[in-house]
Amino acid sequence: MFYHLLYPLKELFFGFNVFRYITFRAAFAAVTAMILSIALGPYVIRQLYQLKAGQPIRKDECLPLYAKHHTKKGTPTMGGMLVLLSIVIPTLLWADLSNENIIIAVIATVYLGVVGFVDDYLKVSKKNSKGLAGRKKFLAQSILGLSIGAYLLFLSTNSEYAQQLHVPFFKDPVITHMGIFAILFTALVIVGTSNAVNLTDGLDGLAIGCVVACSLAYVFITYITGHMEIAKYLHITYIPGAGELAVFCATIAGAGLGFLWFNAYPAQIFMGDTGSLALGGAMGVVAVLIKKELLLLIIGGIFVVEAMSVMLQVASFKLRGKRIFLMSPIHHHFEMKGWQEAKITIRFWILAIIFALIGLGTLKLR
């Protein structure tokens, strides 16, 4: 909004020319998102308490871990609504709303937020931890992923890039014509990332802190992908308009830091599936739009580890009748080993930052 309203006024006063710069708008979008999240947090928490939107705890509380988590029962969930508001509003204020990448990213984030909200609402209203059936959730996510994939392949102004597959450490696309498989690949990335972040959201501040690290890395990557000269220098495929996504990623980082103010241990609010599905999907969509899908495996390494721990646990139990971890996702394994919750969270944050830095480093090692 500011870009469209104030930038044209540069003819009257040269100072308005600053709204042209993505770096300026991204920085202020992040600050706006953080302030909005911190300002609205107490109100949202009070309203959720009044609505009795408390966190349901699994019923098998005879297990030591769930007995320990029983103290969290009643803590407001659906805090993802606060995150979504703090992302969408600043994005609408500071981004170029004529940019199709911004439109796709915002719609996808809100869509997955609604799916997550339905899941959280069912958990709260039914007073159990099951919520929306897994098949229905997967179907809703897949519809979004396939729709975005089809749009990028057939309708996007950057459709020439949709069939490319880029691999970290390689200068040129490894595959230039994926054909119809590009749609399936897009859906796989979006659905997989959305669920991976959802699996990570099991301890106070864990998922949101890792998302902040990931989104900050993508602020830089989206900016240079949409900057012709820097992209050429780093031998990165230049994608017109991709730089505007830096504003969107900055709002995720700002909103995440603001939410962490209340979600840090001991949490006053949980984001629930409303936030985790939306944030994971947002990261996946950004990766798809700038054609850095496989790089997300490095930058979002924590989410990959969490998802793999679940898959390995299930596969091992079905094939061997034995579990690899004491409990999955892997952060619960460390809880079962006696690690304090805050220690696990901080150590995972450190790893998330390391993964993000390694991901950024691959842009030069090509």
How would you describe this structure to a colleague?
The protein is mainly alpha-helical and 366 residues long. It has one domain. It contains 15 helices and no strands. Helix 4 (80-94) packs parallel to helix 11 (272-289) and helix 6 (134-154) crosses helix 7. The longest helix is centred in the first third of the chain and has 29 residues, at 22-50.
Summary of the model, kept short:
Belongs to the glycosyltransferase 4 family. MraY subfamily. With 366 residues, the protein is an all-alpha fold. Helices cover 65% and strands 0% of the residues.
Annotation keywords:
mainly alpha, EC 2.7.8.13, cell cycle, UDP-N-acetylmuramoyl-L-alanyl-D-glutamyl-meso-2,6-diaminopimelyl-D-alanyl-D-alanine:undecaprenyl-phosphate transferase activity
Helix count equals 15
How many strands, which pairing sense, and closed or not: the largest β-sheet? none
Instruction: Provide the helix percentage.
Output: 55-70%
Q: Give the strand tally.
A: 0
- Are there runs of 5+ residues with pLDDT below 50, and where? none
The class by helix and strand makeup works out as mainly alpha
GO biological process, one term: regulation of cell shape
GO molecular function: metal ion binding; phospho-N-acetylmuramoyl-pentapeptide-transferase activity; UDP-N-acetylmuramoyl-L-alanyl-D-glutamyl-meso-2,6-diaminopimelyl-D-alanyl-D-alanine:undecaprenyl-phosphate transferase activity
InterPro entries: Glycosyl_transferase_4, PNAcMuramoyl-5peptid_Trfase, PNAcMuramoyl-5peptid_Trfase_CS
EC number: 2.7.8.13
